[in-house]
């Protein structure tokens, strides 16, 4: 499908026109950034038509719609992706060539809209791509943060956080929709008033502060199907315009407060991954976008439907972790206070409309709000939660008479806290984990009591990724090669990629496949030279760990092993050693001191290793600055080895693991998260698995019996590695890495020594790494393994995940555009 507008000549004309219209310039005079804007407007022109058509089709066919509620959408750049999904990428590239322009350079002008932290936010973005591609009606609902994820600079080996003003040049793909603005209320108190109309009492929220929520819509283009869905992110504005000539002091104060409230709410994304900050502003953000989104969804429903009791037939709300869980009580509030339903009717509708996805079992990530804060900020919503809790506790008592332990463990309100996961489970009609192992751990451990009481709610939806961004766009050489061999069906049906299996023993195919990998490695090497000033050998093994920095993900294990290899090469210079480049990329939450120290350690080790001429370049260590979606696409394409080394049981799923696999990099990993399912698909002989199992880890955690000092005292080489953290090898300041050293050997407050079992897994990790080296030396064997990884990645498309959500949870209808 090539749209009229993408006929080359028309496209070229349109870009020139836009440059003239927007900047009063000729093409030759325009900057690359201006040309980027002009190209986007041309593309947007096409998208807008499809967007209108889609919304018309939805109006006519009235399908059920999913509202995917998420504090985070980590979209990555839109231009390239939109061109890919419009199947116009190649035509546009050629047209721009003819104008003397380079599409890659133009794509590089776009800021990454980084409105998310990591996996959870990126999953939401992949889901939107799949929903549109599979012809489902869907909205993403989120926040238009003024500042998304910070930009990371590395200075002197330390992470520096720089604000990312992604909107400073204007974002061409967004559309402000003031006509759909909604009011959101904070603070104040609740009055009980007699309502003569109904003869009963009603609850009236008074004395609140109000904020105007204004939606910005971004188009979500389906692949080659003319569907354009919407990501709706909310901006905040004061309700009362700030008037300098206001003489009324009360008004003046109120105006200033409302202005500040509005400005603060959407100012910045909390940069924590798998950690709950507990800040009042965070709860304000949550309620702000949830309330606005629910109001908009209900208003839309009421336009064409009379009976609010049937809301669940047309609408479902998926809560991306507990962050939007206040939706449960807000929906109850709207149904009762605004739509006039009684409690039982409102509850019946709500519990058919909301569903919950859990993304973590890490205790510090579970959201619990102090009752004092919650009830002060959201008095009416809190009142409703109290009533939900009261009724639920009665249910517990009925089911488990006299068992107060159950109440203690399951109540929504307990110990002065509001437990958001409990609220989500009690109200949700579905509770899902994000990989098989994760869901099993939820059922057997973390949420055991809930599973026993309501087993029918629990289900698994193993995560997935979109092959359109992470292969078709990110690795165009491999995408073309795949299409040449098996046709283009894999683009919308990734199960087809298994057809590559017939080529895995074909020498010509092996050579072509590895040659593409090599070219991608050259591209990454060039990027590393430009951005890090480090020269790396594209013939070396590219061993990559890119993901958020967190202790449970164990970047520390990886770098300790690098130190170990360095020691080995120094001690035995004659030893056979295949050149290796260890590549890291990771942002640490700004307040997470130990994570930042690990970044410093990686860079300190890199300094020493990369500058030690005696090891003859056998070992290189690179820390890629500012890891984000746009450079991720290039990194996955260039990886030989995928490091997925979390402490078993801690990584709910992982999705980077799937992106590496699709791009032909075998997994070096623990039996954690979706790694387990990757091994199921590709076979354990085509992965490098090591370490404690989830059961073993959980057993140690529950029963004790792990002492890292036993390993430290008996393993000389491990002891040597640890000693080098504090003896000046990597920093003249011997105290610099003391905390890391101590964390591995000493218990600290409530924290166990080596709580992520790094020393426990060290030897089996090193052995697995040795196997990687041996396997890589066998060129044909490696090519076969790499190709099998690509060929077996079919399960891990987000298209499959979304279809499972549709079949088991949402029950959406497909819509086709004529
Ligand atoms: O969600 C991640 C998990 O750690 C991954 O295993 C999983 O693959 C992915 C998608 O299901 N969780 C995650 O990214 N969490 C957060 O980013 C997060 C952000 C804020 C917060 C808690 C968690 N308060």
From TrEMBL:
The keyword Ribosomal protein does not apply. PANTHER family: GLYCOGEN PHOSPHORYLASE, GLYCOGEN PHOSPHORYLASE, LIVER FORM. This is Alpha-1,4 glucan phosphorylase. Its cofactor is pyridoxal 5'-phosphate. InterPro entries: Glycg_phsphrylas, Glyco_trans_35, Pyridoxal_P_attach_site. It is an enzyme of class 2 (transferase). The keyword Protease does not apply. Keywords: Carbohydrate metabolism, Glycosyltransferase, Pyridoxal phosphate, Transferase. Pfam families: Phosphorylase (PF00343). Gene3D superfamilies: Glycogen Phosphorylase B. NCBIfam families: P_ylase (TIGR02093). Its EC number is 2.4.1.1. Phosphorylase is an important allosteric enzyme in carbohydrate metabolism. Enzymes from different sources differ in their regulatory mechanisms and in their natural substrates. However, all known phosphorylases share catalytic and structural properties. Allosteric enzyme that catalyzes the rate-limiting step in glycogen catabolism, the phosphorolytic cleavage of glycogen to produce glucose-1-phosphate, and plays a central role in maintaining cellular and organismal glucose homeostasis. Belongs to the glycogen phosphorylase family. It catalyses: [(1->4)-alpha-D-glucosyl](n) + phosphate = [(1->4)-alpha-D-glucosyl](n-1) + alpha-D-glucose 1-phosphate.
């Amino acid at each position: 499908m090539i749209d009229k507008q993408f006929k080359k000549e028309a496209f070229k004309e349109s870009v020139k026109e836009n440059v003239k219209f927007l900047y009063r310039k000729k093409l030759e005079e325009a900057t690359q950034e201006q040309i980027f804007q002009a190209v986007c407007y041309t593309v947007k022109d096409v998208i807008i038509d499809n967007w209108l058509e889609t919304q018309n089709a939805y109006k006519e066919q009235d399908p059920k719609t999913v509202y995917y509620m998420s504090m985070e959408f980590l979209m990555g750049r839109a231009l390239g992706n939109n061109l890919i999904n419009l199947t116009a990428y190649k035509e546009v590239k050629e047209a721009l060539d003819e104008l003397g322009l380079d599409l890659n350079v133009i794509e590089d002008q776009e800021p990454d809209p980084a409105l998310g932290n990591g996996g959870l936010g990126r999953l939401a973005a992949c889901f939107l791509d799949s929903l549109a591609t599979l012809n489902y009606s869907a909205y993403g609902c989120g926040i238009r943060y003024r500042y998304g994820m910070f930009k990371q600079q590395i200075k002197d080996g330390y992470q520096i956080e720089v604000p990312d003003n992604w909107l400073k040049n204007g974002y061409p793909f967004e559309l402000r929709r003031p006509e759909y603005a909604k009011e959101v209320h904070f603070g104040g108190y609740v009055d009980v008033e007699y309502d003569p109309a109904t003869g009963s009492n009603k609850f009236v929220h008074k004395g609140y502060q109000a904020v105007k929520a204004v939606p910005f819509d971004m188009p979500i283009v389906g692949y080659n199907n003319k569907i354009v869905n919407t990501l709706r992110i909310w901006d905040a504005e004061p309700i009362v315009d700030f008037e300098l000539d206001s003489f009324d002091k009360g008004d003046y104060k109120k105006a200033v407060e409302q202005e500040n409230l509005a400005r603060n709410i959407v100012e910045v994304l909390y940069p924590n991954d798998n950690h709950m900050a507990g800040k009042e502003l965070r709860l304000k953000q949550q309620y702000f976008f949830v309330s606005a989104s629910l109001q908009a969804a209900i208003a839309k429903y009421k336009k064409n439907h009379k009976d609010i009791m049937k809301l669940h037939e047309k609408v479902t709300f998926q809560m991306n972790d507990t962050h939007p869980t206040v939706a449960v009580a807000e929906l109850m509030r709207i149904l009762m206070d605004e739509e006039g339903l009684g409690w039982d009717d409102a509850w019946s509708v709500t519990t058919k409309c909301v569903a919950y996805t859990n993304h973590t079992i890490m205790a510090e990530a579970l959201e619990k709000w102090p009752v004092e804060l919650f009830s002060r900020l959201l008095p009416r919503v809190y009142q409703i939660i109290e009533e939900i809790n009261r009724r639920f506790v009665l249910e517990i008592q009925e089911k488990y008479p006299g068992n107060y332990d159950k109440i203690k463990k399951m109540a929504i309100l307990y110990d002065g806290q509001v437990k958001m996961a409990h609220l989500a489970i009690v109200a949700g009609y579905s509770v899902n984990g994000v990989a098989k192992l994760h869901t099993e751990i939820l059922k057997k451990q973390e949420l055991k009591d809930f599973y026993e009481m309501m087993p029918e709610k629990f289900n698994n939806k193993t995560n997935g990724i979109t092959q359109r961004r992470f292969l078709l766009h990110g690795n165009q050489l491999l995408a073309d090669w795949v299409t040449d061999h098996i046709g283009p069906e894999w683009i919308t049906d990734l199960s087809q990629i298994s057809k590559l299996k017939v080529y895995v023993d074909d020498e010509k195919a092996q050579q072509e496949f590895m040659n593409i990998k090599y070219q991608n490695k050259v591209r990454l090497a060039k990027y590393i030279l430009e951005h890090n000033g480090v020269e790396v050998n594209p013939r070396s093994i590219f061993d990559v760990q890119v993901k958020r920095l967190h202790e449970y993900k164990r970047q520390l294990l990886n770098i300790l092993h690098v130190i170990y290899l360095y020691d080995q090469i120094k001690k035995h210079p004659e030893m056979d050693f295949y050149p290796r480049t260890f590549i890291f990329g990771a942002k640490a939450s700004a307040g997470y001191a130990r994570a930042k120290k690990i970044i410093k350690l990686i860079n300190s080790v890199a300094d020493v290793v990369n500058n030690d001429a005696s090891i003859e370049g056998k070992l290189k260590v690179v820390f890629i600055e500012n890891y984000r979606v746009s450079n991720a696409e290039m990194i996955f394409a260039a990886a030989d080895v995928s490091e997925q080394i979390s402490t078993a049981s801690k990584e709910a799923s992982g999705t980077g693991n799937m992106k590496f696999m699709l791009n032909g990099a075998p997994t070096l990993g623990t039996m954690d998260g979706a790694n387990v399912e990757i091994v199921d698909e590709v076979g354990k002989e085509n992965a490098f698995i090591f370490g404690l199992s989830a059961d073993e880890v959980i057993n140690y955690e529950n029963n004790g019996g792990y002492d890292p000092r036993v390993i430290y005292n008996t393993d000389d080489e491990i002891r040597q590695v640890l000693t080098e953290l504090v003896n000046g090898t990597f920093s003249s300041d011997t105290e610099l890495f003391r905390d890391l050293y101590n964390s591995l050997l000493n218990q600290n407050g409530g924290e166990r020594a080596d709580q992520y079992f790094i020393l426990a897994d060290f030897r089996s990790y090193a052995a697995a790494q040795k196997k990687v080296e041996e396997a890589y030396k066998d060129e044909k064997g490696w090519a076969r393994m790499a190709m099998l990884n690509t060929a077996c990645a079919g399960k891990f498309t987000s298209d499959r995940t979304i279809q499972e959500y549709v079949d088991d949870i949402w029950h959406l209808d497909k819509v086709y555009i004529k």
